[in-house]
Amino acid sequence: MSTQLFVGLDMGASRTKVAVLDGAGRLVGHAVKKSGIDFSVTAAACLDASLEMAGASRADIVRAVATGYGRANVAFVTSESKTEIGCLAKGCHHYFPEAITIIDIGGQDNKIIKLDAPGRRSSFKMNRKCAAGTGAFLEEMAGRLDISLEEMNDMARQSTEMIKLGSYCTVFSATEVLESIRNGKKVADIVKGLFYSVIKRVLEMDSITDRVVMTGGVVAHNPYIVEMTGEMIGRPVLVPELPQLAGAVGAALYALYGKDEG
Amino acid sequence: MRKKIQATDLMNRIMADYFYGLNEAATSGRQKVAWCTSVGPAELLRAMGFAVQFPENHAAILGATRMATDLIPVANAIGYSPDICSYLTSDIGAYLKGITPLSRAYPGIESVPRPDVLVFNTNQCRDVQDWFAWYARKLGVPCIGISSPKSIGEVTDAHIDDVAGQIKALIPTLEMISGSRLDLDRLRETVALSRECTELWRQVLETATASPAPLTFFDGTIHMGPAVVLRGTPEAVDYYKVLLSELEQRVAAGDGAVADEAVRIYWEGMPVWGRLRQHSELFAGIRTAVIASTYCSSWIFPAFDPREPIRSMAKAYLELFIVRSDPYKERYIKGMLAKFNIDGIIYHDAKTCPCNSNSRYGLPQRLEAETGIPSLVISGDLNDLRCVSDEQTRTNVEAFIEQLEEGK
Ligand code: SF4
Questions:
Q1: pTM
Q2: Pick from B96, B118, B130: which is nearest to B36 by CA?
Q3: Domains defined for chain A, CATH in brackets
Q4: pLDDT tens by residue, A74-124
Q5: pLDDT value of position A107
Q6: Beta-carbon separation of B399 and A69 below 8 A
Q7: Smallest CA–CA distance from A81 into chain B, residue
Q8: Among residues A188, A14, A191, which one has the least CA distance to residue A105?
Q9: Which of A137, A189, B59, B241 is deepest in the core (most CB within 10 A)?
Q10: CB distance from B151 to chain A under 8 Å?
Q11: Which residue of chain A is at minimal alpha-carbon distance from B390?
């Protein structure tokens, strides 16, 4: 049976995400893989995995849109592209059709995007040229603490006495972490402090509106960061079902509805 | 592909004559050489017979030729921080390495013309004084200048008295170095020529009020060369007459710099010299024309008046955008947005030039709230490409233009 599929490929610097929608806009396939050094190979693998999940083949693709850092590497699927800011906005508006502030914490950068109720962007900010507040920061610190990234979420949850880090520089933070270890502080307390630091860095980037949506790989793997953010801003934070896929879903929506659809 | 601006060849000849003239002055000793900051008392120096070199122009060439990034560390290593003006650090780095892009561009020129005197005006920043002071120590030449009031709201008589007094106080030293007395009539003529030059330059820039605009900000940064280094000379005046007439013809013919211009952008801040071409192509590729800027417009000085040469020089140097208060700057930019029919503003936050980075004290937010015109801040630098992320710039710019188009 032939189906009509619409594909979004989000080629992030750290992870590649693919979302496949059917003609009714339902998510029927998706995949996430480490981008690695050969973006085209990763994109192909991700695409095939998503199509397999959808029970379809490449011949069923009606249209595809690429986004993200490596969007030029998927020429074998599509030459159409949109920025990751536009796709994230589109994806989040799909799940939360209201005025929102999107906080995306990715492997290499952070974004804050503000949308009005019809989904139009009123502003956006990307982080500056440093790792502060990104997944790269957590990765670096996990290395220092000799723990895996996957362990961080549960560890932070166990913290009883959070250690606050004072600096926004990754190198200075590493020194602070080492000093905490030397002083016999518990790793769980340090990890929670790292999460706190990530959230602070992001909240410094821009003001936020009432309804806040969080997305991105760091959010997907560390739901505790979402809880902490909610506590810090004094209201619950919204999260789409697959927060790491929001950009890919947005790209697929562009494919489905065409460029000019608002 | 856009048609080349025909006047460019003429400009290149004028600029070559200027650099060869300076070189001749310095090597033959027939004419004294003064180094001057961009909005320093160039009119006075020229009227007193000095050949005038502008180190900021030299530094911009270091940036545009992408030599700067390798030279900055040389100055960093002797104590000039990577956080301070990268014009200063690249220029001093070039001197220490004994290289200059002038010798590549102009065969026969071996080095930057050696100064007999260094003359600064701190209206733009403190870095220029530190920069010149380094050369003063190194070369053993006098360094004199004007310490300007800053963050000025309305320019008052008190401000003008202050700066005019400081300009007058430079004259005895300059007379001693040049060996001749200041001829007031010659100063009047020079000021009149400066006025004429900047008036024509204003008209050149204002051709971009047309849609499509016949020139972009990136063209402006190149074509402002004569207005920067030859202010107060007939050559500059003649050049802008030629350029203006060409641009007016283009407007009449509907010949745009970005032929399919759909979005019009105002650029606030300095150019990224080493990325002029890439940025120009990036915008043109998404049907966007960057058509007006504070930077290029800073060489418009309506105050110059030959009847009162020194006071009007003082006034012109004080009215400069960079010396003004934020409320003034907001009014100014607001006026430009309306005049050029702008869809969005891009602020370049240049890491090493706080004075030209107007996104650090909430100005974009205030202006956006007042005008409703969206803004974007991009991080970068004028000369230090270590502070530039091409990928982040591209994504930011593309996302911003997407936002503007979707909002239209
Ligand atoms: S205004 Fe900026 S770029 Fe110009 S000399 Fe001063 S610090 Fe350097």
A1: 0.93
A2: B118
A3: 5-85+245-261 (3.30.420.40), 98-239 (3.30.420.40)
A4: 888 888 999 999 999 999 999 999 999 999 998 888 999 999 999 999 999
A5: 84
A6: no
A7: B398
A8: A14
A9: B59
A10: no
A11: A129
Please name the residues between 337 and 396 in chain B that touch chain A, using a CB distance below 8 Å: 368, 374-375, 377, 379, 387, 389, 391-392, 395-396
This model of the complex carries an ipTM of 0.88
For residue B85, the CA-to-ligand 1 centroid distance in Å is 6
CB spacing of A84 vs B395 below 8 angstroms:
yes
Asked if B357 and B348 count as a contact pair (C-beta separation under 8 A), the reply is yes
Measured CA distances, B144 to B92, B169, B176 (Å): 19, 10, 13
d(CA B128, CA B132): 6
Q: How far is A121 from chain B (nearest CA, A)?
A: 6
Residues 6 or more apart whose Cβ sits within 8 Å of residue B156: none
Span B323-338, pLDDT tens digits: 999 999 999 999 999 9
Q: Please give the sequence-ordered ranges of beta strands (E in DSSP) within B136-190, or none if there are none.
A: 143-146
Residues whose CB falls within 8 Å of the CB of residue B145, separated by 6 or more in sequence, listed in order = B37, B40, B118, B119, B120, B121, B122, B129, B132, B170
Nearest CA in chain B to A70: B391
- Decide if pLDDT at A154 tops 80: yes
Helix/strand/coil percentages in chain A, nearest 5: 45, 20, 35
